[in-house]
Design brief:
The structure holds three protein chains of three kinds.
Chain A (H helix, E strand, L loop, with lengths): L1 H17 L17 E7 L5 H14 L5 E3 L3 E2 L4 H13 L4 E4 L4 H13 L4 E4 L10 E5 L1 H15 L4 E7 L5 H14 L5 E8 L4 H14 L5 E4 L2 H13 L7 E6 L7 H6 L5 E4 L4 H12 L7 E4 L2 E3 L4 H8 L6
Parallel strand pairs in A: 1-2, 1-3, 1-4, 4-5, 5-6, 6-12, 7-8, 7-9, 9-10, 10-11
Antiparallel strand pairs in A: 11-13
Chain B lengths: L5 H33 L6 H26 L7 H19 L3 H24 L5 H20 L4 E2 L11 H6 L15 H19 L1 H11 L1 H6 L4 H27 L1 E2 L7 H11 L11 H20 L4 H19 L3 H6 L5
Antiparallel strand pairs in B: 1-2
Chain C lengths: L1 E12 L2 E12 L3 E5 L6 H8 L7 E6 L2 E2 L5 H6 L2 E4 L11 H5 L10 H14 L15 H14 L4 E5 L7 H16 L3 E5 L3 H7 L2 E6 L2 E6 L4 H9 L18 E10 L10 E9 L3 E6 L5 H8 L7 E6 L2 E2 L5 H6 L2 E4 L3 H5 L6 H6 L7 E2 L2 E2 L1 H14 L16 H13 L5 E5 L7 H16 L3 E5 L3 H7 L2 E6 L2 E7 L5 H8 L8
Helix pairs in contact in C: 4-5
The chains are: A alpha/beta, B mainly alpha, C alpha/beta.
Chain lengths: ~325, ~350, ~500
């Protein structure tokens, strides 16, 4: 019995490994010239936004034939896992390292180690507490929150009641998206946030919260979701109560997937969403420049694009990578 | 003591009846607080349907988990199983345009398959169920993410004419808010109640049900009484998985999409419902009626706290305390316990 | 000189007056036996002495001074040690760890603990390594470990609650030696037992309790009189079996049965056991601890897989894969350990009694509760189970009544062969007599009974034939009238070198 189990497990393991791209060989000779090897440690593959980022990074890296991107390491939301992944990449002597830290503090030392080993590090999306990296690329959540707030002010010219579905309370993006939004809506004192609760970034958490709000508050004019799924979860609740037409829904993320925010804007479910840039293209370009000794900008803060009914179709086409990898 | 006067036995019976009633006292309390603070806003069909509907899939998981707990085991994998069933449902709908009535049995099969593996690992390989199902939680979540590419799959699929396909239209009846059977009955609530009734009957009226209690109460005595302990163990895990599969389409319809993270930590809510309802993690003690009440307490409490705009942090504190209070209230010797002095 | 005096002790539980004005004195070096049916208040009285209860009425004096005993710690300080009927050992710890549990030094002195343990075990004639885990020891061994644990403390008063209920005669003798050794050193012993013949041998004085009251005490042991004091009514014959049963056809035949043992659980291997049981016959199985009595019955019941041998039942080949298939063929096993092996203690009488025979009550796949309860009720009445009703929780019944529920459960399966493993262990005299009567009745109605017991008088009185096991082999067979305690013991100790 034990033997069978062992054999089956080994076979599974082998199959799982084989399904991944070429085995990591630090410097494969290849066609004449030197081939650069790049490692990427992702904080959590399971978030749709990050899955999209992974896809895009793989896509844009292909444009540089002399750069090989090792299989993406998934830290599964664990800082400890991520630290050891980064250290693994250092041991493998990669030529450049991209890190999307789960949290700043625990990853700082690991990034410092890479820096000490003279490996250029590109910090993607979230920061670390050291200056010893080659480039930081990331979006500005305060800015995006502010844009969403400005859109809300525009949508409610005569003022109105807003409910806010927050991400996980301790997450930095949650804090920033809330801050920027509140700054912007202060422009119109007749706009009030009458309720806010933690929806944990999840659609199925947002629906019952919205149902309770609809029972409590006779007048809700706009729902601000810290991400699109929560805004859409609230939309389902409002639709069921027959109030979806009277309420505006604003989200953030704007993923180009069938179930994502851009499509929802196209369908008129969301009034607007704001693309949180993945930075994948910028990261690929920056890596290429560093490896070929060209100067790069150290702080690359990315802008956002507002998705509206007019540009939704085009944006979807632009960002949709399905079938391209 | 064996000398049992009729007075003592009457007292014992009253006490144990009260013990069973204590779960209901909890429910009555939650209802009372809801009515007192929010009145009509709380006590109306829409709000109650919404509240129970939001918990229905977890309630169905709780029924399966109760069966496993009754045999003295635990099933931590139900959240993941619900997740993969939800994903299966959404994919069957979006990729193959299957009819809803075809999707449900497929999802139940998927759930039952992984549940069977849980049972086989527990009964045949003698892995403790906590460990076995913890491993399954991870394996199935991984498979779920793999098949979905970490991207959620929507169920509101539009045809070429821009309208929902007939299958997608019908699928909404599984629980997309605002879609009711015969314009009246909210399927998740109906499904939860029917599952409770069916499994209540299985546990109280069939030989298999007796065997479940026997295996949990004393596995050795059960085996020596001719109970096939291995088969019962495998069966309860399979049924638990099957129910998780059954809940999958409900969860997918509720969010109008299957999220690769759907069902995460639902197992904890399911276990909490069973425990509040009087199930003992030691096995052999518990009822489906209790679990039903436990589920109602959890979801209505959530609703009452939400309607009263209690902050999220305090909600967590209160819900944790409720579990402890409910379990303490379950003690049949509650009154003697506080008078001091244990009995030998 | 009086070392312990308990005066006018009373104790009430909700709805029950468990003890009422009971007094007891014990002198230095004296063995006082406490006698009474289950529920008479013996255990409650002793639990008060051992500090199990916080509050009670009355006064306890030790060495002439009033002692306030309200916790086990108080009791220990006054030199009182108790060996509980329900063994209080931690299965996952070693023997040495168990003996010193709660009294270890902060930094364990393993060597010292193990040396002292080895010494104690030797004193009890127990040949076990101090490092052996308690879970690997048999019940009887555990009982002796409890004795060793009590001895390891500086005792002035030692309470033994049924210390011999799981011991075979040889172990009992060993225990007596130990008790005499203790009393020689001035230790007072309070001894609770149901075995009257033991009291004759060991007790200086017998105190009888009934229904929580002091009934009287005697210096010598007159069995009939003591039984009458205990039950409150004269009791006829202790073992009511008339001379020999009428023998019918051969029911069970076992030939060359070999079952491998198991090191971990201490299961004895069976080696080429052959036997037969006729319809209407009661066959006894005697043997020392670890001789394989339980293993033999369990193997016939399909619990263990046989490595070799043939069995037939009612003339047809019989190869039980599991208890389930054995039950289907009309075999029943009243297992050795009532609480661990026979009953779901937290559930009701009805639940337990109908468990193996539920198939009989099915209607459209559902259990017909009315028919089920009617059938259970009938059996429960027949066996005179003292309980308020069949929905009463089994765990709250006395030992004798629990055993009757086990018997009711097996009678409901209408078996043709009944295997009984220690059917009267830890049961008071009244219930014991009823169970013996039932055995005779079963045999008279043409069923075969195979009974294993460590009480030789019981076997001698009840059985038509007695088989003796030693180290998993049959080393003797005696017909009714040929057997004597001495002959059986001799066969039971006929150890041989294991030939490879």
């Amino acid at each position: 019995m034990k033997k069978t189990v062992t054999i089956v497990l080994c076979a599974l393991l082998a199959a799982a490994c084989a399904s991944k791209a070429p085995a990591p060989s630090a410097s494969s000779g290849g066609e004449g010239g030197k081939k650069f090897v790049v490692g990427y440690s992702q904080s959590n593959n399971a978030e749709p936004y990050r899955a999209q980022l992974n896809l895009q990074l793989q896509h844009f890296m292909k444009k540089y034939p002399d750069i090989e991107l090792l299989p993406i390491a998934d830290a599964k939301q664990s800082s400890a896992t991520q630290v050891s992944q980064v250290q693994n990449f250092i041991t493998q002597k990669v030529d450049a390292l991209i890190v999307s830290p789960t949290e700043p503090a625990p990853l700082t030392a690991a990034v410092q180690q890479a820096c000490d080993a003279k490996i250029p590090v590109i910090v993607l999306d979230r920061t670390v507490n050291t200056d010893c990296f080659s480039a930081f690329i990331g979006g500005d959540n305060v800015l995006i929150g502010k844009k969403a707030g400005e859109e809300a002010v525009k949508l409610l010219p005569n003022g109105g009641n807003i409910v806010e579905l927050r991400g996980i309370m301790s997450n930095q993006p949650q804090i920033d998206r809330d801050k920027g939004f509140r700054e912007a809506i202060a422009a119109n004192p007749k706009i009030k946030i009458i309720a806010d609760r933690e929806g944990k970034w999840l659609k199925e958490q947002a629906t019952p919260i919205m149902q309770q709000w609809l029972a409590q508050h006779p007048q809700i004019d706009l729902v601000y979701g810290h991400n699109d799924p929560m805004a859409l979860g609230a939309y389902l609740a409002a639709q069921a109560a027959g109030k979806a037409d009277k309420i505006k829904f604003v989200g953030i993320d704007g993923l180009a997937i069938p179930d994502g925010g851009i499509r929802a804007v196209q369908l008129g479910q969301l009034s607007a969403t704001f693309i949180y840039p993945t930075g994948a293209q910028e990261a690929a370009d920056t890596v290429n420049k560093i490896l070929h000794g060209q100067p790069v900008e150290k702080q690359q803060v990315l802008g956002t694009t507002q998705v509206s009914k007019d540009n939704a179709a085009d944006l979807y086409k632009q960002y949709d990578l399905s079938g391209q990898n | 003591m064996s000398t049992t006067t009729s007075g003592e036995s009457r007292m014992r019976r009253t006490l144990s009846a009260l013990g069973a009633a204590q779960a209901y006292i909890g429910l009555v309390l939650v209802l009372a607080v809801g009515i007192a603070t929010k009145g009509e806003m709380f006590l109306n069909e829409t709000n109650l349907t919404n509240a129970i509907g939001a918990f229905a899939s977890r309630g169905i998981l709780a029924v399966g988990v109760t069966m496993v707990i009754l045999t003295g085991g635990i099933d931590l994998s139900v959240g993941s199983l619900l997740g993969i069933a939800s994903m299966t449902a959404a994919m069957m709908l979006s990729k193959y345009s299957l009819e809803p009535w075809q999707i449900v049995p497929i999802c139940m099969l998927v759930g039952a398959f992984f549940g069977f593996l849980n049972g086989a690992g527990t009964a045949w390989l003698r892995i403790q169920s906590f460990v076995m199902t913890l491993a399954m939680l991870s394996v199935v979540r991984g498979l779920d993410r793999q098949v979905s590419d970490n991207v959620s799959v929507g169920t509101q699929i539009a045809g070429p004419d821009g309208k929902l396909t007939p299958q997608a239209e019908a699928f909404q009846l599984f629980g997309t808010p605002g879609h009711n059977l015969f314009d009246r009955i909210y399927y998740p609530v109906l499904a939860f109640i029917v599952v409770c009734i069916v499994f209540h009957l299985i546990l109280t009226k069939t030989r298999f049900g007796r065997h479940v209690y026997a295996v949990g109460g004393n596995p050795t005595a059960a085996r020596l009484s001719g109970v096939n302990v291995t088969a019962v163990t495998i069966a309860v895990f399979t049924l638990s998985g099957m129910l998780a599969g059954f809940a999958g389409p409900i969860d997918a319809a509720y969010s109008a999409s299957a999220d690769p993270q759907a069902g995460q930590s639902f197992e904890l809510d399911a276990i909490a419902a069973a425990v509040i309802g009087g199930a003992s993690l030691a096995g052999g003690k518990g009822t489906i009626a209790g679990t039903f009440v436990g589920a109602l307490i959890l979801t209505l409490l959530d609703n009452v706290l939400g309607l009263n705009a209690v902050s999220d942090n305090w909600q967590l504190v209160i819900k944790g305390l409720i579990v402890v209070v409910a379990v303490v209230l379950q003690r049949p010797d509650l009154f003697t316990f506080f008078r001091g002095g244990s009995r030998s | 000189m009086t070392i312990l005096a308990m005066r006018a002790i009373g104790k009430s539980f909700p709805g029950v007056r468990a003890l009422d004005g009971v007094s007891l004195t014990v002198g230095e070096g004296e063995v006082v036996a406490l006698l009474g049916e289950n529920g008479a208040g013996k255990s409650t009285l002793m639990n008060i002495l051992a500090g199990v209860f916080k509050d009670y009425e009355g006064e306890i004096e030790i060495g002439g001074q009033v002692a306030h005993i309200h916790s086990p710690k108080d009791a220990r300080r006054h030199g009182i040690a108790m060996i509980h009927q329900e063994l209080n050992l931690v299965p996952e710890l070693s023997i040495a760890d168990n003996i010193f549990l709660g009294r270890e030094r902060a930094i364990l002195d393993r060597k010292g603990m193990e040396a002292r343990t080895a010494e104690l075990l030797r004193g009890l004639g127990l040949d076990l390594s101090p490092r052996r885990l308690v879970k690997q020891c048999k019940i009887a061994e555990r009982q002796l470990i409890e004795v060793a644990k009590a001895l390891s403390q500086n005792v002035r008063v030692l309470v033994m609650d049924e210390p011999t209920s799981a011991l075979a005669d040889a172990e009992v003798r060993r225990l007596y030696t130990v008790i005499r050794d203790l009393t020689g050193r001035g230790v007072a012993v309070i001894y609770i037992s149901h075995r009257l013949e033991e009291l004759e041998e060991i007790a200086d004085r017998v105190v009888v309790l009934r229904d929580g009251r002091y009934i009287g005490e005697r210096e010598g042991v007159d069995r009939d009189e003591l039984i009458q004091m205990m039950v409150g009514r004269p009791l006829g014959e202790l073992f009511p079996r008339a001379e020999g049963g009428s023998r019918g056809e051969e029911l069970l035949k076992v030939e060359g049965l070999s079952v491998p043992g198991e090191q971990g659980s201490g299961r004895t291997a069976l080696r080429e056991v052959s036997l037969s049981v006729r319809a209407g016959e009661i066959v006894g199985v005697a043997g020392l601890m670890g001789a394989g009595r339980s293993e033999l019955l369990e193997s016939i019941f399909g619990v263990h897989k046989a490595a070799a041998g043939e069995m037939s039942l009612g003339g047809r080949p019989y190869r039980p894969k599991s208890p389930k298939s054995a039950i289907r063929r009309g075999v029943a096993l009243v297992a050795e350990d009532r609480k661990a092996q026979s009953l779901v203690l937290g559930n009701t009488i009805a639940f337990n009694a109908s468990l193996p025979s539920l198939g009989r009550f099915l209607r459209f796949g559902m259990v017909d509760a009315r028919r089920e309860h009617a059938a259970v009720d009938e059996r429960v009445r027949e066996l005179r189970v003292k309980a308020p009703g069949i929905r009463f929780t089994v765990g709250n019944l006395s030992g004798g009544n629990q055993q009757k529920v086990v018997l009711a459960k097996w009678l409901l399966t209408t078996p043709s062969l009944i295997l009984m493993d220690e059917p009267t262990r830890g049961i008071d005299v009244g219930a014991k007599a009823e169970i013996h009567a039932l055995m005779s009745e079963l045999a008279a109605s043409g069923k075969g009974v195979l009974v294993a017991s460590s009480e030789l008088p019981e076997l001698l009185a009840m059985c038509d034939r007695i088989l003796v096991l030693c180290e998993g082999r049959i080393t003797g067979e005696f017909g009714r009238g040929q057997a004597s305690q001495e002959a059986i013991l001799e066969a039971a100790m006929a150890r041989q070198q294991v030939t490879v």
